[in-house]
Amino acid sequence: KAGVTQTPRYLIKTRGQQVTLSCSPISGHRSVSWYQQTPGQGLQFLFEYFSETQRNKGNFPGRFSGRQFSNSRSEMNVSTLELGDSALYLCASSLDTGGVGNTGELFFGEGSRLTVL
Amino acid sequence: AQSVTQLDSQVPVFEEAPVELRCNYSSSVSVYLFWYVQYPNQGLQLLLKYLSGSTLVKGINGFEAEFNKSQTSFHLRKPSVHISDTAEYFCAVRSRTSYGKLTFGQGTILTVHP
Cβ separation of B97 and A101 shorter than 8 Å? Predict the structure, then answer.
């Protein structure tokens, strides 16, 4: 069974540009979450999607956005890039049945490493 | 809201020695607890999780953790480490109604020396 796939693995952008990252979850998983990992702030939750709807959102500015498609694949976009956006962006999928108290484990991809110059 | 504190940023240890990585959490609601490992240039891999029931949880690669509700701790242990255990370890919590949102500690870098 294929794991969580993130593309691209590495990318370099300049300040002011925008970037789109892609995540393909494990087959059958309907929940996709995104995290930002930096040396200074550690792992921080960006947002989570389930059945094309954002269910949960972290404390990031509006420049960070995401969406989920009907096949559960997800994209996140960062506009007007800043130097501080340089980070490893991790996607995780979960076999979430949608019920309260769901114990679904999060399976992580290998991440997309973004460098902003 | 939840918070997680990993008490040691770095833990050096010799091969075949025991190790304990400490984790304390704070939450006003019931939570699930997790330990993840991250090898260089890779994503996170789940080592073990506590959902309910027995407070001693066994995971992969010989790791185990004990949930202590009164001390709000979830320390990770391994009786004998290998060189291949060198990695960064993250403790995380999730409330039972928090969809997909894990709150992570700052991580502990475990370095196993020969």
Answer: yes
